[in-house]
Amino acid sequence: MAESTAKTLKIREFPIDENPKHTYLNAEKGILSWLLTVDHKRIGLLYLGSITLFFFVGGVLALLLRTELLTPAQSIIDADTYNQIFTLHGAIMIFLFIIPSIPAALGNFFLPMMIGAKDVAFPRLNLASWWIYILGALFALYSIISGAVDTGWTFYTPYSVQTGTAVVSMTMAVFVLGFSSILTGLNFIVTLHKLRSPGLTWSKMPLFLWSLYATAIIQILATPVLAITVLLLAMERIFGIGIFDPTMGGDPVLYQHFFWFYSHPAVYIMIVPAFGIMSELISTFSRKTIFGYWAIALSSLAIAFIGFLVWGHHMFVSGQSELSSVVFSFLTFFVGVPTGIKIFNWVATMYKGSIDLKTPMLYALAFLFLFTIGGITGIMIGALSVNVHLHDTYYIVAHFHYVMMGGTVIALLGGLHYWWPKMTGRMYSEFWGRITCGVIFVSFNMTFLPQFIMGSQGMPRRYFNYVDQFQGLHQFSTIGSYILGIGFVMMAVYLVWSLFKGPKAPSNPWRSRSLEWMTSSPPSHHNFEYTPVILHGPYDHHKPMREFRMGVAQEAAGHGETVEHEKT
Amino acid sequence: MNRIIEYMLPPQRSTLASEVDSLFTFINVAGFILFAGIMITILIFVIKYRRKSEDDVTPVITHNSILEVSWTVIPIILILIVFSWGFRGFLMLSSPPSDAYEINVTAASWLWEFRYPNGGTTVNEVFVPVDRPVKFIMRSDDVLHSLYIPDFRIKMDVLPNRYTTTWFQATSTGEAILYCTEYCGTAHSDMLATVHVLSIEEFEEWLETGLEVDEDMPLADLGRQTYTSAGCNACHTLDGADRIGPSFLNLYNTERELVDGSVVTADEDYLRRSILEPQAEVTAGYPNNMPSYAGRLNERQIDGLIAFIKELQD
Fold it and tell me: Which of A493, B80, B194, B279 could serve as a FRET partner for A296 with CA atoms 20 to 30 Å apart?
């Protein structure tokens, strides 16, 4: 068996050390060994810590907004503060939390492991991208303490040119954060092309990596446009060069085109990695080969490409030409098709599987429920005539929270629980994990389902005061958001508890066939003590486990080179 | 289902509403069937294929052409239906009949001004005839705004650099609410107006008499009326509380410290200047964002407002 795969490549099974003494966590000590690390796993954790912090900040801001909305008039804060808080909630959640969340945290940690590499292609660039992220965060912080921003996270002109708040520092934060995103994307593309272990063909690549690959393409192609846009906005504010502000001869709708040319593809930067996690979870916890591997892999790429052609659906009533609106609406629906295909493939994977409702799988099921609602309501607002009624109402707010939070965040939580044993070497409490998943699922729906109703009834978004008719639904939504907050506190408690008191994790608690599980928990400094050789696909649950632990029998100088040499 | 949909939507009060609502209903029903189908399938799978032992063996199923083609083609058919349906409604929304009654709309932070063909204007209130197409020709004085009337299912952004238009034909008399739905700063959520739909006869009569100011009305009463009709109430309270601008209570004859440090007395002259050139002498501590009312109020209304403010002493 082993000899037949490559003529001169001798491979053997490597047993996994179940009680590793040397792991990436204790390889080096001291705070600098973390802040200046080039280990992709540690950088992944740095990102995980950073995004958790900003998720907490953004979440507290959201609860403040919901509290203010308990009554139709002023409750706890004034209108200007409210406007600043919803702007910060959006900007922090999008630029500091959700865009880096799955790729930069979980992706950084697991992408090299899943292809059997020691690290990403450019480890120092990887560290640089985290520091650039921190620099961007500092700019955002500076903006907050020097007067905050009240434009909405979209910075629409001419309001953003004329308002007295700290728009320039916040747009500079966005500018800087964009580079962090670009560098991560670049690193992933090169890594996936150049550092795959022997035998790991494109058709054996885990679907999580296909999704990160699609994401990386969007990151490096779309993000520069955002950088240019915010730079133009800053030049308009600082030097008075008329680009978007009509009083200086500019066109405000042009800004919207520029902005959404990035920000719509950015939606796929946020959601496509979540699709990748879903494929891993569903296959592992159904213990079954994924259904439609290529359909799922290629639909990620299809979404990435079509995603570039639909930005105008944010602008049906902006004053762009009616013909543009019609074309954008038509193209928009075609994003729905590959997305639907993914959902059907995941459900088909569960057919005749061996389904184990562990916490990560519960999150996967919650994702299917919430994201399907998000998707179908997306069809609703893609329809031209209905969009005119629903645009800029709470229907939109509810829709993107179902997609971004019900989709991306729920998948992130599923992935976090799934990979927690591998990252930390500890098992979380399955009991509390399931309870918390239930709490989050129910309270999420309590928070955002009423917003669909309010929106279709005509409640505009970004409203500090609202008409009395909506008070009941707003209060229901606010109560839901409080329970949602409690759910996240519960999760923080049991996850932190598991770090200290949790039982030691085995190397492969879920009996996954993917490569990251074929090393100790937590992994050693170099991920693998040998060069892995891949014989089967990552979802081949019907193949014996030992065939997934193969590596080059006699290690020569470095990765790859030996194999290349011997093959020729 | 019908009752749920009815609950979810505002009343249908324009000829366009039923077109929009029928598509809204179709997507909800089709979407719900699709959603329920997927969820029930998942539920059945989860129960039926629940892990029985750690050694469960699962079959290798990687493809099924019939299934895959059908779950690609059926959604494509559905989205083509939804697209064409939405397109039809959008065509209606963007093609005002040529005989529409035209009203010019100016949006400013934060008020709506409506100018009628006979030269009359109203602020934060618009009067329209029932059963007759009405077209709004809109522009903004400052930043972006958006005109939204949920009962009519219309919405259109209002731009500072060119005209945009929207139209409707109301089907029943009564009042409807008009919102601003493009974020425009502090009082964005107070930038509301009321649409009064009148019968044709009432509307004709209103055009004759309603736009004229009642010459006999005492000045202070006219001022009180203007205070709400011109939208002063969005920013200035009557109870001493600070909103966006200073409260009108006890305002008259007080010393005002301006942003440049100078002090003026809020006498009749200052109040008048503040209405016509609000950005010239701004009281310290308040934003410089009030729109000018020059041309929006007539002399008697300005006098009325001043008389009204003078009376507000406790």
Answer: B80
Q: How confident is the model at residue B4 (pLDDT cuts 50, 70, 90)?
A: confident
Q: Is residue B54 part of a domain?
A: no
Confidence category of residue B54, pLDDT binned at 50, 70, 90: confident
**Contact (CB, 8 A) for B153 and A317:** no
pLDDT tens per residue, range A391-403: 999 999 999 999 9
Q: How would you label A407-423 residue by residue, b for 16+ Cβ within 10 Å and e otherwise?
A: bbbbbbbbbbbbbbbbb
Determine the average pLDDT of the residues in B223-233: 83
- Regarding whether B284 and B263 lie in a shared domain, the answer is yes
B155 contacts A380? CB cut-off 8 A: no
Mean pLDDT of chain B: 90
Q: Inform me whether the C-beta atom of residue A453 falls under 8 Å from chain B C-beta atoms.
A: yes
Contact B61 A291 (CB under 8 A): yes
User: Same structural domain for residues B223 and B206?
Assistant: no
Question: Among B16, B35, B61, whose Cβ lies nearest the Cβ of A372?
Answer: B35
Q: What is the pLDDT of residue B235?
A: 81
pTM, two decimals, is 0.91
pLDDT at residue number A52: 97
Interface test with B, best of A386, A459, A464 (most B CBs within 10 A): A386
What pLDDT, on the 0 to 100 scale, is given for residue A4? 47
Give the whole-angstrom CA distance, residue A26 versus residue A16. Answer: 18
Going by C-alpha positions, the residue among B90, B145, B103, B112 that lies closest to residue B234 is B112
Give contacts of B27 with chain A, Cβ < 8 Å. Answer: 376, 379-380, 383, 386
For residue B212, the model assigns a pLDDT of 67
Does B120 score more than 90 pLDDT? no
Q: What are phi and psi of B187, to 5 degrees?
A: -100, 30
Residue ranges of domains in chain A, CATH in brackets: 2-19+27-567 (1.20.210.10)
- Domain containing residue B66: 2-48+62-93
User: Mean pLDDT score of chain A, rounded to an integer?
Assistant: 92
Distance of alpha carbon A35 from alpha carbon A267, whole angstroms: 30
Contact residues, chain B, for A511 at CB < 8 Å: 54
Residue B55 lies in a domain: no
Residue pair A336/A382 in contact (Cβ under 8 Å)? The answer is yes
Alpha-carbon distance A291 to nearest alpha carbon in chain B (angstroms) = 5
A388 has a chain B CB within 8 A of its CB: yes
- Residue A567: its pLDDT value, please? 39
Q: What is the CATH number of the domain that holds B248?
A: 1.10.760.10
Q: Is the pLDDT of residue A56 over 90?
A: yes
Of A288, A369, A383, the CB nearest to B27: A383
User: What is the model's pLDDT at position B214?
Assistant: 65
Chain B residues within 8 A of A469 when measuring between CB atoms: none
Yes or no, beta carbons of A385 and B144 under 8 Å apart: no
Rounded mean pLDDT, A166-195: 94
Confidence of residue A7 (pLDDT cuts 50, 70, 90): low
Verify that B138 and B202 share a domain, yes or no: yes
Question: Which chain B residues are Cβ-neighbours of A452 within 8 angstroms?
Answer: 8
C-alpha distances (whole Å) from A527 to each of A9, A20, B5 are 21, 12, 55
Q: Which of B39, B73, B93 is the last residue of a domain?
A: B93
The Cα A301–Cα A378 span in angstroms is: 20
Q: Are B87 and A326 in contact (CB under 8 A)?
A: yes
Determine, for residues B143 and A337 on separate chains, whether the beta-carbon distance falls below 8 Å: no
Residue count of chain A: 568
What CATH number has the domain bearing residue B183? Answer: 2.60.40.420
Q: Is residue B18 assigned to a domain?
A: yes
- Total structural domains in chain B? 3
User: Per the domain annotation, does B7 fall within a domain?
Assistant: yes
